[in-house]
Amino acid sequence: MTEELFRDDATLRDCSATVLALGEGGVILDRTVFYPLGGGQAGDAGELLLADGRRVAITEARKSKERPGAVLHLLAPDADLSLLAPGMAVTAQIDWARRHRHMRFHTTTHLLCALVPHPVDGCSITAGYARLDFHMVEPLDKETLTAGIARLVAEAHPVRHRWISEAELDANPGLVRSMSVQPPRGLGRVRVLEIDGVDLQPCGGTHVANTAEIGAVVVTKIEKKSAMTRRVVLGFAA
Ligand SMILES: [Zn+2]
């Protein structure tokens, strides 16, 4: 089990940690700032800094398949595994420029949910683009959505998360906007993301602290993926 520091503070760029195990092509730490691929958001990349000053590149973080609750920090195929051993103290440091792009795009997908009141049936967030699929038949307009995003960014809405009980979630089924990603259950509590006056939904991803921090994000494309799906693609303005 890895303590996931990014869940309570998405602005953490590094942390001290101890190597718990090696395997599955990567390293498991007792705590981490690396967000593992999930909920449509790409996993973080970065480095492990060793006590002797050497660095080990992490290509991407994933959820461990063999150890439920553990975050796996994937190593490059040619990484020198002999540098690492269980019990070793390291500093885990994410590629912040890449993660901040994930956070800006991810928060924008919440704004889109407020602008397009239809269920979401797919989502992908990378450092270069993001896309959100809506279960709907009506056409969407690129310029209208871009203007809507710009307005919500300019209004500088605070973004924060809090935990609610599963019972509270069950009593408010409208909180679950996504058809493809259900909030993780069994922990007794669910993390919800709230953008003041704009959007409220369960989400475990990383977000900026205020919509103003998103900056210039535009809708680059709208695609009709199927009779019942409209895909909105986001990019950073040049
Ligand atoms: Zn989110």
Could you spell the SSE succession in H and E letters? EEEEEEEEHEEHEHEEEE
Q: Catalogue the unreliable spans.
A: none
Q: How many strands in all?
A: 15
Strands across the major sheet, in which order? 2-3-7-6-5-8
Class from secondary-structure proportions: alpha+beta
Overall mean pLDDT: 93
Radius of gyration: 19 Å
Helix content: 10-25%
Individual helix count? 3
- Shape verdict: globular
The major sheet is characterized as: 6 strands, antiparallel, barrel
* Cofactors and ligands: zinc ion
Estimated share of beta-strand residues: 35-45%
Notable traits:
alpha+beta, 238 residues, binds zinc ion, 6-stranded antiparallel beta barrel, 16% helix
How would you portray this structure in words?
It is a single chain. The chain is 16% helix and 38% strand. It has 238 residues and is an alpha+beta fold. The strands form four sheets. Strands 2-3-7-6-5-8 form a six-stranded antiparallel barrel. A four-stranded antiparallel sheet has the order 9-10-15-14, covered by helices on one side. A three-stranded antiparallel sheet has the order 11-12-13. Strand 6 (55-63) and strand 7 (71-75) form a beta hairpin. The mean pLDDT is 93. The structure holds zinc ion. Zinc ion binds next to helix 1.
